[in-house]
Amino acid sequence: MNIVLDTNVFVSGLFFKGGAPHRILRAWQSEQFILYASAEILNEYERVIRELVHVRPTVDPDKAIFLIHKNVQLVKSFILPRQVCDDPDDDKFISCALTIKASIVSGDKALLRTAGYKNLVVLTPAQFERQYLI
Question: Yes or no: is domain 2-133 CATH 3.40.50.1010?
Fold first, then answer.
């Protein structure tokens, strides 16, 4: 199973124990699915982790970033012919997912509305957990 996690799901799972995002990251770590990201997505993950480390000082940002780089499959995404998401900053997730035929896991309403574009599957963390992890 190929998955692209939006930044909010990834960071929530990293910083806040319990809940679907955390269980999704644990499933990824136990190799229940393959997590894909483009360089642009990885940069956003890193930036947000470093910005939020004060929220959970027990999270070592360098260790988290190392694990991301070690365990995420890097994708060179194609450029979308037009803006797809209401939030153009989220098009990087769509491009990455379409490049390797992955599903997106997101709680972002703008991303969720893109489901169906070129057969794109976008699931909330709870939907993903119900369908694939339980």
Answer: yes
